[in-house]
Amino acid sequence: MIITSQKEFKDIIKALAKARKVFLVGCSECAALCGTGDAKALEAMKERLEGQGIVVTGGMIAKTGCQVLGTKTELKGHKDAVDDADVILSMSCGAGAQTIEELFPQKEVYTANDSLFLGNMSRFRQFDERCSMCGDCVLNETGGICPVTRCPKGILNGPCGGVRDGKCEVDPNLDCCFVLIYERLKKIDQIESFKNIKEPRDFQHSRKPSKLKVDTRGQARGYQPSEQREQEGEAPLALPIEGMTKTASKASVEGEAPSGFAGGGGDASPFK
């Protein structure tokens, strides 16, 4: 999940300096779990903005803020409130904010949140960074523990000479990930693989901005344009939309609210 933290309110007000009317958009996925885009967060933001003399014309919690077509459908039920607003304030991650920017190119869009990292929630609203989305995953060789992310130096062959009593020299409170990898491989009887020297990462896999399609088997075929793939004898990629089983993703496209969540999808408002 994408971990977000709300910006300082003074910075939000600075961005909204010329705004008199604002529409709020949250997200029922990652931002909701972070407490930066759920109904409670939107209600609190509404009160603070109104305290500054800014009118909040309405609000919506998108089921999945980074799902462009689904969010577009959900926002149709809020057309009047959106049209009445000078500005839209996104309370999701950066991807969600850019969804709103894409849907409303003629309207000012600002974000209330900072996107921090891709992480796991170990306890309620306690997050650990586990993946750097490098595009060249080594988890199959490291027992499921990522050294690219969990080593502050990002090395692939370790431990380095700075490890002391299983702890990292950069942060003595941090377990050395290579000690963790060694212990993990020993438990699953794959300790011999620890001796394999890993080649340098191919940074082409993490070049930005990335753009790709996924085929019907859920596989991404790299960054080649479709014309080049067809010339090389590969079938063109296709997304299984027509006739696909009605999954949560398709429900989002159709603008349906997720089960049990009053604030997400369609016409539901997060405000009491």
Q: How would you describe what is shown here?
A:
This protein has 272 residues and is of the alpha/beta class. Among the domains are: 2-117, 3-Layer(aba) Sandwich (Rossmann fold), CATH 3.40.50; 137-195, no CATH class. The chain is 28% helix and 16% strand. The protein is built from ten helices and seven strands. The protein has helices at residues 9-15, 30-34, 39-51, 68-75, 79-84, 94-103, 147-150, 177-187, 226-231, 248-253, and strands at 2-6, 21-27, 55-62, 87-90, 108-111, 113-123, 126-129. It has a four-stranded parallel β-sheet with strand order 3-2-4-5, sandwiched between helices. A three-stranded antiparallel β-sheet has the order 1-6-7. A hairpin with a 2-residue loop joins strand 6 and strand 7. The protein starts with a strand and ends in a 19-residue tail after the last helix. The model is unreliable at 223-230 and 234-262 (pLDDT under 50).
| CATH architecture assignment name of the domain at 2-117 | 3-Layer(aba) Sandwich
The biggest beta sheet is recorded as:
4 strands, parallel
Amount of beta strand: 15-25%
CATH homologous superfamily of the domain at 2-117 - what is it?
Response regulator
Q: What is the N-to-C succession of helices and strands?
A: EHEHHEHHEHEEEHHHH
- The first-level CATH class of the domain at 2-117 is given as Alpha Beta
The assigned structural class equals alpha/beta
SSE blueprint:
Elements: E1 2-6, H1 9-15, E2 21-27, H2 30-34, H3 39-51, E3 55-62, H4 68-75, H5 79-84, E4 87-90, H6 94-103, E5 108-111, E6 113-123, E7 126-129, H7 147-150, H8 177-187, H9 226-231, H10 248-253
Parallel strand pairs: 2-3, 2-4, 4-5
Antiparallel strand pairs: 1-6, 6-7
